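The protein record filed here.
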Amino acid sequence: MRKKSCVLVLIMLLCCVLVACNDVPDDKGVRMERDLSVDTSSPIGLYFYASDGTYQRYNENIGENYFDTNKPTVAFFHGWLPEASGFKDGEICHNADEFAPKIIEAGYNFCALDYSKFAQSLPALFNYIWMGFDDSHSVACRFAREFAACFKDYDKEIRFVSHSYGAHSSTATAYLLSKMVEQGIIGANCLPSRMTYADPYLGDLFTGGMFGGIKGDTIENVGESIGARSTTEVVADCMQYLSDKGVVIDVYCGMPMAYDQFLEKETERRDACKKKLYDSGAWTILKGLQKKYGTVGDIHMLTLEWTFDSFFADVKHSERQYFPTASLDNQKMLALKGKLFESTLEELNVNNDVLVEVER
């Protein structure tokens, strides 16, 4: 009887082990939440603009004048917004409404992923976006869930456009969405096919030790370890991952403090990180605007204006090649992956600007 009992116990233990093993995710990582419900009690979320300048938070019954499923979509991610006191009740990111009308008139839906009322502390933004916010889900996790809920049945092109620290929120959101696709939570139709970066803030100065450093050790909802990586290396790894998945990436840069101030005391790591960033897409440095406006201050917003203006610019090309602008189609932009360009015109006039390819 004791022998039979021992055998029975062993069988039960084996079953428990098998069940436990079956419950452990495979190489796709930690199981992500499957709940796509939207928390509308928080102002952090997805907002659509209409042609009359009004905007509305996403909901299942949102009107066609805000979100027309027959049109392609541009989704905008704002950056650091140091002044919250000037916001009116219900107002969202300041600069989105400046660009929305032209994009809508060109036949797109235009939406903004907004957390502007909480984007005032630059040293805290990396933690808010990637790790967690207010003892709950990270900004990127909230964005990804709401975006997936909205676009789950959508079959048109999606493009992410980001400015400054929006490079982090757009990259993290796209990364989480792609991981959700890997785990079968959503379809690949929810993913952006193009990611356009306007003067991305890739610097790591404000997450250094004197500002408190990175608070946390994993990317929320995927359980991926940050490890010893800098904030720039995290973005570079995710951009490379997205590029390898087929996302077309184009980057337009104006203020070196934003796009080039990282890992300055670690030459080998900096070189490896920079190579990874530049290998992921087509990069353009707006040298012409830098010569006229300098490399700090106004150049940061002018780069955003140049990028949005380039949506409507004539496609630039020579007999031998095309040049990167937001108006260039995905296939032609993909052919420029890994190349570096510079602008030459010392004024904000994309149509008349001349781009040249330079050595990296």
Notes: The chain has one domain: 33-358. The chain has eleven helices and twelve strands.
